[in-house]
UniProtKB/TrEMBL annotation:
The gene is cysS. Keywords: Aminoacyl-tRNA synthetase, ATP-binding, Cytoplasm, Ligase, Metal-binding, Nucleotide-binding, Protein biosynthesis, Zinc. Binds 1 zinc ion per subunit. GO terms for molecular function: ATP binding; cysteine-tRNA ligase activity; zinc ion binding. Monomer. This is Cysteine--tRNA ligase. Zn(2+) binds at residues 29, 215, 240, 244. CDD domains: CysRS_core. Residues 408-454 form the Cysteinyl-tRNA ligase anticodon binding domain. It comes from Candidatus Nomurabacteria bacterium RIFCSPLOWO2_01_FULL_36_16. It is an enzyme of class 6 (ligase).
Length: 458
């Protein structure tokens, strides 16, 4: 079976055939580093990671770029609220992001690109768009893209400008807006006092880029004018990706992206996540509940990336229980690695090649682990092979467990013991209890004696 992906642009599954047979070029819209990324954001990155792992599994070389939006309306607003420089503020959240993706076993892209490192390239594109008559300068010296001058505007999101005449007039300076508010959008925002000390002095004047031009510039600078894959969440389709097409194709006159791929929404308690609704979660919330972050990855893989999923804690806890069962089955296979079972590998490949059908691929994983006609050694080789795509960290988990069994008292446990001692002195018994549970989950037991806490391996 050939590798097939659902292309948002054509609304159908298509056989995958990269522009350059030797190397797939892929771009993922990365985080805006203005706050902790939420679990809905991580659905996008786990989806992009699975896609990349499938390509690598199929033998492709992949050049993958993920950006960090470190200048836009939100980063400026929040850094000012905290009284920090834009650089110091965004660096903090970028580091948190790197830590989170490591915990989720997301492979690093070939390169992370920071928007502020590409101001020159953005200015260059904007000047070309001005020259081509696709953009214009406003009276306050900002530059806007003229959506009526780009004949394919709306091709990704299905927006029909003719029917939107009433709304499609005017222009919008804000980075984010809805489909019913399609307007000329800002490429370059001339400085005003709300920007504070965030500005660049360029041939376009003193100002800063709009959000959408950032991705066009970073993609083009690192991957060339035409790329194979561009990923993001469905909420990126309009206006962000529609605008990227307008900017990139407007300037080059060439087709920008061959396959646009988007993951569906993650809802929490059947609602869109929002801080105001008290249903807003970040990865730290999962870790604080003593749930392995990989359980979140595993839970997402149980659904196709193109279906909406509804996050509830019980579902995640159920996923963790199932994941622990898988780990235990794997550990029970012993030390030796045999040969990959070709029959199961074929079944597995058929699933992932069909637009990343991870729910079906997981059933193949369960099936082989339960199959009594296959030797443990061969099962182990096959599970490790599948894990190149699933990223559930079988071998790593085993190493972690072995490490705990063979080492004295690891530093991590010692630190938790000290933290617990502090909590007990403060008579914070809820915290002390939580820490005991955490220590237990890491394979150690703690007993309180008149001499203090005693630690031993479970
Ligand atoms: Zn983007």
């Amino acid at each position: 079976m050939a590798l097939r992906f659902f292309n948002t642009l054509t609304h159908k599954k298509e056989n995958f055939s990269p522009i350059n047979k030797k190397e797939v070029r892929m771009y993922t819209c990365g985080p805006t580093v203005y706050d902790y990324a939420h679990i809905g954001n991580y659905r996008s990155y786990i989806f992009a990671d699975t896609l990349k792992r499938v390509l690598l599994y199929e033998g492709y070389k992949v050049k993958h770029i993920m950006n960090l939006t470190d200048v836009d309306d939100k980063t400026i607003r929040n850094s000012q609220n905290e009284g920090k420089s834009l650089q110091e503020f965004t660096q903090f959240y970028a580091e948190k992001f790197f830590k989170d993706i490591k915990a989720l076993n997301i492979l690093n892209p070939t390169k992370f690109t920071k928007a502020t490192d590409y101001i020159h390239e953005m200015v260059d594109i904007i000047k070309k768009l001005l020259k081509k008559g696709l953009a214009y300068k406003s009276e306050e010296a900002s530059v806007y893209f003229n959506i009526r001058k780009f004949k394919n505007y709306g091709k990704l999101s299905g927006l029909i400008l003719e029917n939107q005449k009433e709304n499609a007039s005017g222009r919008i300076k804000s980075d984010e807006y809805g489909k019913d508010n399609a307007q000329d959008f800002a490429l370059w925002k001339s400085w005003d006092k709300t920007d504070g000390d965030v500005f660049w002095k360029t041939t376009l004047g003193k100002g800063r880029p709009g959000w959408h031009i950032e991705c066009s510039a970073m993609s083009m600078a690192n991957l060339g004018e035409q790329i194979d894959l561009h990923t993001g969440g469905v909420d990126n389709i309009f206006p962000h990706h529609e605008n990227e097409i307008a900017q990139s194709e407007g300037v080059t006159g060439k087709h920008f992206v061959k396959y646009w791929m988007h993951n569906e929404w993650l809802l929490v308690d059947k609602k869109k996540m929002a801080k105001s609704k008290n249903n807003f979660y970040v990865l730290k919330d999962i870790i604080n509940r003593d749930i392995n972050p990989i359980a979140y990855r595993f839970w997402l893989l149980m659904a196709n990336y193109r279906t909406r999923v509804n996050f509830v804690w019980e579902a995640l806890e159920g996923a963790e229980t199932a994941l622990k069962r898988l780990y235990n089955l794997y550990i029970g296979l012993g030390k030796d690695i045999g040969k990959i079972n070709k029959e199961y590998q074929k079944k597995f490949k058929e699933c992932i090649e069909d637009d990343l059908d991870t729910p079906k691929a997981l059933t193949v994983l369960w099936d082989i682990l339960k199959d009594e006609n296959i030797s443990n050694d061969d099962k182990k080789a096959t599970v490790l092979d599948f894990d190149k795509v699933l990223g559930l960290g079988f071998e790593q988990t085993k190493k972690d467990i072995e490490k705990i069994r063979t080492e004295k008292i690891p530093k991590e446990i010692q630190e938790l013991i000290e933290e617990r001692e502090q909590a007990r002195q403060n008579k914070d018994f809820t915290k002390s209890d939580e820490l005991r549970k955490k220590i237990n989950s890491l394979g150690y037991e703690v007993t309180d004696t008149p001499e203090g806490q005693k630690v031993s391996k479970i």
